[in-house]
Amino acid sequence: MSVVVGPGIEHDPRLLNTGPSPFGWHRYETALRCLAAYGYGLEARLLGRRIDRPQLVRGTLVHLGLAHHYARKLAAQKGEKCDLYAPVEAMERLTRLEIAAGGFAPLWQEQLANAVVAVAGYIAHYATERWRVLYVEEVFGLRFGEAQITQRFDLVVEIDGRVYVVDHKTSAKITADHRRFYALSGQFIGMTWIGKYTWGDRFGGPILNLVEVNGSGKPRFQRPALELLPAQVAAFGATVATTFARMKDAAQYPVDQWPKSPSEHTCWTRYGACDHIERCGVKAPAVTLPATAVLGPDGERSLLPAA
Fold it and tell me: Mean pLDDT for each 10-residue chunk of the chain (307 residues)?
């Protein structure tokens, strides 16, 4: 399947899907921050609106390049032929597709040049790593009652008999804070729950795979250890279930009636203004979102194992 950042890009079977999982933590995180922002994001997606930001484009391209690198390694491990593009070819192909679908060409071309340097540097830097690749860009999930949580794992590897879920993160500059704030991320807590359920005692935990894309031609790479907070891990199921219940309640009403969270910390983040700040401030025709868009198809939820 193709990667979908903006809507309507051409399908290419030689590109891996590195996009969001069907009902991932990104939904819960947005709804916890601001239910209205969650609704406006779904509305924008249904209407085919593009959201291209430098960090989103950069992360998408690097994720794709690394996915193709490890998918080709997996095929080589199995002695199978791999028809996927090589990493640089994949990033170049996606850039052309996104520009053809309306992406802002200078942004995509600039970030492509940076991503190519970063991915080539990464492959050289970790040329001797002894990871056994198990899965690349595969979706796993759990249910907490009727609340589903899915994750598309960037990479699952085996190291000395233990199984680890690797998540690639890009940044313009790697700092000590990355280890601290990703240890607080529900995405990594969710990985821990799903990993323990799926692999039991063999699960070794999540690995944060940091890639610095700084435009200098000298990218840096780190894999710092994460120390998750036990109380947050223990409360994760309740967090998912109560947030899903709020989504379900909101889905009964037009999106403009969903609760807003007016705050300088919500409406203006470290990445700048909320993507929906203009939509939020303008009264628009009442739109009631399809329940399947807000909550996911009932049939898909029922297929997930219960935590």
Answer: 42 92 95 95 85 90 98 97 97 95 93 97 96 97 94 97 98 92 95 97 97 90 94 96 96 93 89 87 78 80 73
* pLDDT for position 302: 65
Closest CA to 66 of 115, 22, 129: 115
Buried b (16+ CB within 10 A) or exposed e, 272-291: eebbbeebbeeeeeeeebee
Q: How far is CA 38 from CA 26, 32, 44, 109, 225, in A?
A: 9, 9, 10, 29, 31
Q: What is the pLDDT of residue 185?
A: 96
3-state secondary structure the chain: CCCCCCCCCCCCCCCCCCCCCCCCHHHHHHHHHCHHHHHHHHHHHHCCCCCCCHHHHHHHHHHHHHHHHHHHHHHHHHCCCCCCCCHHHHHHHHHHHHHHCCCCHHHHHHHHHHHHHHHHHHHHHCCCCCCEEEEEEEEEEEEECCEEEEEEEEEEEEECCEEEEEEEEEECCCCHHHHHHHCCCHHHHHHHHHHHHHHHHHEEEEEEEEEECCCCCCCCEECCCCCCCHHHHHHHHHHHHHHHHHHHHHCCCCHHHCCCCCCCCCCEECCEECCCHHHHCCCCCCCCCCHHHHHCCHHHHHHCCEC
